[in-house]
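Usage example:
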Amino acid sequence: DTAVSQTPKYLVTQMGNDKSIKCEQNLGHDTMYWYKQDSKKFLKIMFSYNNKELIINETVPNRFSPKSPDKAHLNLHINSLELGDSAVYFCASSQESRGWYGYTFGSGTRLTVV
Amino acid sequence: AQTVTQSQPEMSVQEAETVTLSCTYDTSESDYYLFWYKQPPSRQMILVIRQEAYKQQNATENRFSVNFQKAAKSFSLKISDSQLGDAAMYFCAYRTSGGNNDMRFGAGTRLTVKP
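Running the assembly step on the lines above writes:
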């Protein structure tokens, strides 16, 4: 069983479209994250949810909207996609009471906007 | 804000040799966690090793070990007996011990292993 699973793994879409990326974790963790990895491999936090509550909301365009229906799921919806949104998006999870364990990452979603 | 700096964009090592990847960080906190993650071409992020700041003993995981210098805010990764499968991007990361804090990553070091 995959601990943190993201779907889809690859996503190619046209500018202006709306798309969603789904993430699910079966580790029983209480916190989930979205990170963006740009073309230079830099990883930057976008959002964090703890028990369905938004905790971290970095400066990202409001075209990006996370949704957490329960603590095992964190989805990312992107409206009006732009060329600059092309990147790899990683979902991750952790248990806040065990911070030193670090994060468990999904395998990433490569988004290409054409 | 905490920052993590990896000053070596690329490193190269001969198979079976030893290589050290550098990482420094900036923080005013006294308790925190440090991590090294590996990202092979498959792009999966894999935890290599972790260190708790209050522990003076350097962490070791098989061929991987760290040199943690808290006063110098330095956290280097040593890979011994390098193998072809060690070729990857390596990211140093920092996280405070308090709750609801995200993990901050360095820019990464691309490691090449030569046969």
